[in-house]
Design a protein that fits this description.
The chain has 2 domains: about 80 residues, Chitinase A, domain 3; about 50 residues, Thrombin, subunit H, CATH 2.40.10. It has 1 helix and 9 strands; from the N terminus they run E-E-E-H-E-E-E-E-E-E. Strands 1, 2, 3, 4 and 9 form a 5-stranded antiparallel β-sheet that branches. It has a 4-stranded antiparallel β-sheet with strand order 5-8-7-6, with no helix packed on it. The N terminus is likely disordered. By secondary structure, it is mainly β.
Length: about 150
């Protein structure tokens, strides 16, 4: 009796992963260690394309540890995403300090995170780039399970 090849990670499949995402210096920015693994449908936007590309073709039990270049990760910082915001536009309960990440409402109702860079008088300089933009990331991933995605109801 021959064993059937296990199902591999492919678009439209439901994959369950254990993973750790770390910066160049080893700082862990996200992990499932100590938590439930991540289950998602491949191609649904849960993972950015560069991370998803790492797991495509892997089968349950496979493990990879790869570096993701900023081009395939969260891109490079864009100086056009750094803006000055009037200090009085912050809620009373928010004390703007460099390094603080604050949610800002945009016209379509979504909330966008911005990292405070510095304060210059009554102006607060805020970086709206993704916090991981410009970083080479290490993605250590193990495929736990792969199965057909559930049918949409």
């Amino acid at each position: 009796m021959t064993e059937e090849n296990p199902t591999t990670v492919a678009p439209g499949m439901q994959a369950t992963l254990r993973y750790t995402l770390a910066l160049e210096d080893g700082t862990v920015v996200e992990t499932t260690e100590g938590f439930d693994p991540l289950t998602f449908t491949v191609g649904d936007g849960t993972l950015i394309e560069g991370l998803e590309a790492v797991v495509r073709g892997l089968a349950p039990g496979d493990r990879e540890c790869l570096q993701i270049d900023p081009r395939e990760g969260f891109g490079y910082p864009d100086v056009g995403n750094i803006h000055f915001v009037e200090r009085d536009r912050f809620p009373d309960d928010v004390d703007p300090q460099p390094g603080l990440i604050v949610g800002f409402s945009v016209p379509n109702g979504e909330e966008v995170p911005g990292t405070i860079l510095d304060i210059q008088g009554d102006q607060v300089r805020v970086d709206f780039n993704h916090p991981l933009a410009g970083h080479t990331l290490t993605f250590d991933v193990e495929v736990v399970a792969v199965e057909p995605a559930p049918e949409d109801a």
